[in-house]
Each structure stands twice: as C-alpha cells, then as structure tokens.
Design brief:
This protein has 10 helices and 11 strands.
Amino acid sequence: MLHLAEGTPLLPEGRRAEVTQWLIAALNIIEFASAAWMDMVLAGRMPEFFGPPPPAEVVEHARRTSLTRLDALEPLMADRGWIAGDFSVADIIMADVLRLVETEGQLGDHPALSGYVARAIARPAFGRAMADIAAAGGEVRKAPEDIPGTGRYAVVADPQGAVFGLLQPDMSQMSEAEAGEGAFNQKKPGHGNWNELMSTDPEAAFAFYAGLFGWTRGEAMDMGKMGTYQLFRRNGVDIGAMMGLGDAPMPVWLPYFGVDGAVTNVIEDIRTAGGTVHHGPMEVPGPAWIAVAQDPQGAWFAIVGTER
C-alpha cells in the first residue's frame, strides 16, 4: 500500500513518517490482536474451514487482548477526523481493520472508533452500489478502498454467498487506448473471457446480478441431472453463465481466461509452473476447448481456447 500511495496525497511528504507509523500500527498492533480473536470466533462457527475451535478461555483471552488495543486507540481518535491529519493510506488500512472488528460487535463501547469507520465508509464512490447490494440481500466483505492510479474497489458477496469484486476504475491517468483495453476481452489471449457462477439458487442469483448490472438472459442449455446452464449477456454479448452447485462445495465464481494456441499446451505450462489441472481438455459448444485448474496457491480458474 505504501508503494501504491507513493507520490500521491495519500502519502504526503511532510507526514510520511507519521503516516507510515500508523499504517504499521494498524497491521502489527490492532489487526494482529483482532485477527487472532476473529479466527477463533470463525473456527467456532465453521470448523470445516478454520479448524477446530480452541477452548472458551483461550477465545476470551484473545477477545480481551483485542479490546485492550481498541481501548488505547479510542481516546486518540476522539478529537481527530483522520488518523494523521488529512485522509491518508494509513486510514485506508486502519479503517478496514476496524471495520472487520466492528462486524463482531467490538466497537460498541468505542464511539470515536465507530465514527471513524463510518466516515471512512461514507467517502465518495461505491456508496450507491453498496446500498443496492445490501438491499438485494448481498453482503459487503471488504469496504471500498482507493488504489491510487487504479480506482476504487470493494469485495462483496451475493445472497447465496458467492464472493466477487467491484471496481470503479480511475481513468484520469490512462490514455484512450489503455482506458479502452479492459481486463475482459474475449478476443485477446491473457484477458478475461468468460464468467461462470455455481450457485445453490441460480434463479435468485440471476435476479440479483440482473438488478445490479443490467445483465439479460441468453440461451438456456439443458444439462440433464446437472440442471440448466443459463447464459447471461451484457449489451447483447454472452459473457458468462450460471448453473447449479454441481461439484462446488459452496457458491463460487469461476473465471475463464482466453489462451492462444492449443489448450493442451497451456495445461502443460500450468503443471510446469506448479499448478494443478482437474479437468480438461474438454470440448464445449462454441466450438471451444476448456480446462479447469488451480494455481500453486490454490485459487481456481479455467482456460478456454479454440484448439485442443
């Protein structure tokens, strides 16, 4: 974040040391304690993902440790609008850390910190999108943040729990060619090519996304026992599809990236780079060939090309 903020008002030269100090404090003091406690809380709710929960006395000790840090920060923020003068990169980090703490009710006795988080979330951009998502039954997982030179983003989930990102791009520093390039381009290898949603309720999911983004229905393909593969469109162009859960353990988006040449060759490249290929090459309507894989860190993705 410091690198991204370099040369912008988010990291002013006259307050560089103070801003940097507070950014590190947010991560190494506030988040270090609160994240440990929140992991224990989540383990109690979802042990299949976070492991077995620790004993209650351990969870309580972690909770009190987190509160101690918040108690120390509360009076410091009582007479400040932002943490180090004007809004800075330190506020982006600190407010996001505290926002997560607030979701578990730990800011109830800290009005100054609650007000600080509210001011950060109320900053321009994404406000209407956040309201629309919440009204439609979605959930904000990561409040909007600015990435200097890129734009403002947030991470949210649909009503069934599938997580996705939102981006309001900053075009001010881009040329016309760059602004028109886009990360999603079905005609260029290495770009996003298709978006596939596996959901516990595809009909409800379509209504949610259609209301947010104006997507319309395309062709509906019968997959037998697996249900319907419902294509969706933006401006008359098919850009993805929605289906039942299938083999997915939970609702999730699967991004497809276009590749140049044979999909079989790219499969070998994925394996050589440490990834794992689970399906493919497989022929799909188009005609096209696909493969589904995971990168070395475990993130799922798919590739699509015109050659086997």
